[in-house]
Amino acid sequence: MKLNHVNLTVTDxxxxxxxxxxxxxxxxxxxxxxxxxxxxxxGLVLTLMKAGEVSYPKTFxxxxxxxxxxxxxxxxxxxxxxxFEANPPQRSHAWTFYVRAPGGFMVEVMx
Length: 111
Hints:
This protein has helices at 13-24, 69-81, and strands at residues 5-10, 27-31, 35-39, 45-50, 62-65, 90-91, 95-101, 105-110. The longest helix has 13 residues, at 69-81. It is built from two helices and eight strands, in the order E-H-E-E-E-E-H-E-E-E. It is of the alpha/beta class. It has a single domain (5-52, 59-110), classed as 2,3-Dihydroxybiphenyl 1,2-Dioxygenase, domain 1 (Roll).
């Protein structure tokens, strides 16, 4: 069995989609202010739906595994240069950091 898609409710669909495209290489197959579908190289579909408010549980997040610690560090550096707030990567269950994405959800980047 393979997970086919995940839907995230977000406050800003275009900004969330741009973030996921820019930093994680997801491909946007079109959409609008209220809905869009993004695809990865393994066939996962990540849909984004607009809501006025978003309230995820404190520990909720989506994760993007990277091929190396250096790649995690590079993504962290790029995000910080672009104005995102995140604590530096640290050794936990992996070399990892968390960042709040536009639209109101948390993302983990790890290797």
